[in-house]
Amino acid sequence: MEMKGEERIAAPRQVVWESLNDPEVLKQCIPGCESLDKTGENEMAAAVKLKIGPVSAKFKGEVVLENINAPESYTISGEGKGGIAGFAKGGADVNLAEEGDETVLTYEVKAQVGGKIAQLGSRLIDSTSKKLAGQFFEKFKEIVESGS
Question: Which region holds residue 70: left if phi is over 0, alpha if psi is between -120 and 50, else beta?
Answer without folding.
Answer: beta
